[in-house]
Write a structure and sequence with these properties.
Layout (H helix, E strand, L loop, with lengths): L9 E6 L9 H12 L4 E4 L4 H4 L9 H12 L3 E5 L7 H6 L26 H18 L5 E5 L11 H14 L4 H7 L27 H29 L5 E2 L1 E2 L8 H4 L7 E3 L9 H18 L5 E5 L18 H11 L2 E6 L26 H15 L12 E4 L2 H9 L10 H14 L4 E4 L10 E4 L9 H10 L3 E4 L22 H5 L1 E8 L6 E5 L2 E14 L3 E6 L8 E8 L2 E6 L1 E2 L3 H13 L14 E6 L2 E6 L5 E11 L5 E8 L4 E6 L5
Parallel strand pairs: 1-2, 1-9, 2-3, 3-4, 4-5, 6-7, 7-8, 8-9, 10-11, 10-12, 12-13, 13-19
Antiparallel strand pairs: 14-16, 15-16, 15-17, 16-20, 17-18, 18-19, 21-22, 22-25, 23-24, 23-25
Helix pairs in contact: 5-8, 8-13, 10-14, 14-17
The structure holds alpha-D-galactopyranose and zinc ion.
Alpha-D-galactopyranose binds next to loops.
């Protein structure tokens, strides 16, 4: 099976010819316009179930054949979707069990999409039947380059079938031993010892919602249900079309599904990217987007991913949907490429005439022509992407990793104590990402259980929950010469959210880091403490560990409250490696200075050899260097050596102007060029 890697940049997006089946002249116009816009791929059939199977067991693929053929004859390949994201009404009318039951215990009525039970055998069977029909039908069809499974899997179902499945999942997790579950969930507290698995329900606001281990298990179960639902979807595709890679589109930092786990089940990771460019801080939006790209790139060990959706202009689901400034769509696309995407795809090709998303941006608007700003920008992007086909397949090398783990996100959200207002785990990870981003350094964003070995530096912000083996893995990484940075509330609980006994961080990590944490203080938002590091002082916010050094060198101290003068930044040489602890939380200026020290002392390479102006994003992919201006003003880029502009072929050297929303893609000039 191929992994979806491609010799060109896939350019296209969601295309819904099914909405225009009664006016097929629109299809011909679509083809003409797609060619004008340099589109080479269309994702078809995502929400087409009611046309594909208008009545139970009656299938009609003729219209799909017709459009697939038209597309392919015109040089446009097809990413074919399975339609499980939205059902025809007949299905839930006949089989109400397919409808989702919300947390309140009430079964939903027919409506919207993604409104299905993940466990329902009937739904799984119906999905499997139509997927098999599609695979039988399109098997061997050269137009089909990838399967797009369902759409943005999300949510959860609390129906009786799901409750039963959850109990089964728990039985497996706890070796069919209710006492093991009671021990791990600390059932003696509030007299919560169960005598049978049948007594356990999904967490609910009107039921059990104070047992963090239950909530963690439920999240893990929901992830596994999605994966098994997906595995059921792809079984016929794997059997009949083993050469066609499979993906499903992830939704940014959505935390309802552990994407880091799900990713190992897809051939190509893909995600839907809708940056908020109108929030008044475009440079920050660019960082958030870069971070998400790096998350998804890292889920597959750095292999290229697809940006499955983005908008060519506006979305319709923010409260106010401001049009981003001209050029935004292009720089969003280029940023995706810079960070490892092999595709630029839109939601959507043509605006629907009716329905909920009729005002969502599309390449072709309700005017239906190519005479719009949005169309001409998309066409220009298409032209540029054709010149960048060599970028496809290339990867970035990372010497630094940040551990940002989905399960740890859940755990940090669920415990009660210290500062209950301030968790923001993903933002905490971003704080440590920003200094590297600003220095043009590639960072992998990895889960706790990733392979640590190739990294010079690993930073683990707020790594509160340690999964089985994490302690050993951190220890051996450091032993073998790695440089590891932990922060506050590090190594506090195990995977069932039970505290480690004998002090924090867990077990032997106290020796590795040469410290132990005695107390943890929480500061209200308006109480800002001070800490020293080097010859500077920094703000201490929200959470701070009070630590007792036990062999570690003290690099910084608190300067406030009864713990003034006690250590808050420590360093321990452990065997071949280095173990740092930063015991407090701050707004990022500390991370900036601390990371500068890490970059220097570990000789971490940047993509470029000059000071990167604020608001400029720089990323190296293969030997392409992307320089992108995400600020809203012109910036001067001080290129110290000769580069070649990949698009124009011109030489670039010295102080070079780069307007807002503009970018340069360059390569170092070789001696003989
Ligand atoms: C998601 C969905 C699309 C569409 C867009 C709108 O990403 O996958 O079907 O609803 O949002 O932004
Ligand atoms: Zn259910």
């Amino acid at each position: 099976m191929n992994n979806g890697s491609s010799s060109h940049i896939v350019y296209g997006g969601d295309y819904n010819p099914d909405q225009w089946i009664k006016t097929k002249e629109v299809w011909d116009e679509d083809i003409r316009l797609m060619k004008l816009a340099h589109i080479n791929s269309a994702t078809v059939g995502i929400f087409a179930w009611s046309l594909l199977e208008p009545q139970e067991g009656v299938f009609d693929f003729d219209w799909l054949d017709e459009i697939v053929e038209k597309l392919y004859d015109n040089g446009i390949s097809v990413i074919l979707a399975t339609p499980s994201g939205a059902r025809p009404p007949w299905l839930s009318e006949k089989y109400p069990e397919v409808l989702r039951v919300e947390e309140n215990g009430i079964r939903n009525e027919y409506g919207v999409r993604h409104n299905h039970c993940l466990t329902s055998p009937v739904y799984r069977e119906k999905v499997s039947i139509i997927n098999r029909k599609l695979a039988e039908h399109f098997k061997g069809n050269p137009a089909i380059k990838m399967w797009h499974i369902s759409n943005e899997y999300s949510g959860e179902c609390h129906c009786p079938l799901c409750q039963e499945a959850f109990r089964k999942w728990l039985k497996k997790e706890y070796h069919n031993d209710i006492n093991e579950l009671n021990d791990k969930w600390w059932g003696g507290f509030w007299s919560h010892n169960y005598t049978d698995f049948s007594q356990i329900n999904s967490p609910k606001s009107r039921g059990e919602n104070h047992v963090s281990a239950l909530k963690l298990c439920w999240k893990r179960f929901v992830t596994d249900s999605h994966i098994s639902f997906y595995e059921n979807e792809i079984a016929p595709l794997r059997e009949l079309t083993p050469d066609i890679p499979v993906t499903t589109n992830f939704m940014n930092m959505y935390d309802g599904i552990d994407y880091q786990k799900f990713a190992s089940h897809v051939d190509t990771v893909s995600w839907d990217n809708y940056p908020d460019w109108s929030n008044g801080n475009t440079a920050r939006t660019a960082i958030n987007t870069a971070f998400a790209h790096d998350v998804f790139r890292s889920t597959k060990g750095g292999k290229p991913f697809y940006m499955m959706e983005s908008t060519p202009s506006v979305v319709n689901w923010r409260q106010v949907n401001k049009i981003p400034s001209p050029g935004t769509q292009e720089i969003t696309s280029i940023q995706a490429l810079a960070y490892g995407s092999d595709s630029v795809q839109y939601f959507q090709w043509r605006k629907s005439r009716g329905g909920h998303e009729k005002y969502h941006g599309a390449v072709v608007g309700h005017d239906g022509t190519e005479n719009t700003r949005v169309f001409s920008e998309a066409a220009h992007t298409g032209e540029i992407l054709e010149k960048l086909s060599d970028v496809a397949g290339k990867q970035s090398e990372a010497e630094v990793a940040i551990i940002c783990d989905w399960e740890n996100k859940w755990a940090t959200d669920f415990f009660c104590g210290y500062n209950n207002n301030r968790r923001d785990y993903f933002d905490e990870c971003k704080k440590w990402y920003i200094p590297f981003y600003k220095a043009g350094i590639t960072v992998d964003i990895i889960p706790e259980d990733a392979d640590y070995s190739g990294y010079k530096v690993i930073i683990a912000p707020f790594l509160y929950m340690l999964k089985d083996q994490t302690e050993e893995r951190i220890t051996s990484y450091i032993k073998n010469g790695g440089c590891f940075v932990s922060t506050y509330l590090f190594g506090v609980t195990d995977k069932d959210d039970r505290c480690f006994l004998g002090g924090f961080p867990a077990n032997g990590l106290k020796d590795v880091f040469g410290i132990s944490v005695e107390e943890t203080d929480a500061l209200p938002d308006d109480l800002i403490y001070k800490a020293s590091f080097g010859d500077k002082f920094y703000d201490v916010r929200h959470i701070c560990d009070i630590i007792r050094p036990n062999g570690a060198q003290i690099l910084g101290e608190y300067k406030s409250d009864f713990y003034s003068g006690t250590p808050c930044v420590t360093f321990n040489k452990f065997d071949e490696g280095k173990a740092y602890c930063v015991a407090f939380r701050n707004e990022g200026d500390f991370a900036r200075d601390f990371c500068s020290m890490l970059i220097e002392s570990n000789r971490i390479k940047s993509a470029v050899n000059f000071n990167i102006p604020d608001g400029i994003g720089i990323r190296k992919r293969g030997d392409f260097i992307f320089v992108m201006n995400f600020s809203n003003e012109m910036k001067i880029i001080p290129f110290p050596i000769y580069y070649t502009d990949v698009i124009t072929g011109e030489l670039v050297f010295g102080k070079t102007r780069l307007e807002a929303n503009k970018y340069l893609i360059v390569k170092e000039k070789k001696e003989n060029e």
